[in-house]
Amino acid sequence: MKKETFVYTVTDPNGLHARPAGLLVRKAQELKGEVTISLRDRSASLKKLLAVMGLGIRHGDTVTVTVESEHAAEDAARLQRFFSEHV
Fold first, then answer.
1. pLDDT by residue (tens digit) across 25-36?
2. Catalytic residue among 17, 59, 71, 86, which?
3. Is 17 a catalytic residue?
4. Where are the domains of the chain?
C-alpha cells in the first residue's frame, strides 16, 4: 500500500458546502483505497459526506488530503485536480 499526501487551500467563497462536498465524496468513493481529509487537528474519511461536512471547512482553510492505495500517486493527482476545479 502506497501513501500520497497533498495540501489544498479552499478558494470557493462558500467553503466546502454541501454540493461540492457531495461531488467530492462521490469522486473519493470511486477510489479503491483509504482517503482522509484533515483540517487542523481533526480528520474524516473523504468517503463519508456527514464526516466531511462535520469538519466545517470554510473559504481560506487549508486541508490535507491523504490517499492510501496501490495507485496512490494517480489517485491523489485525480483528487487534487478535482479540488482545483470545484473547491
1. 999 999 999 999
2. 17
3. yes
4. 2-86
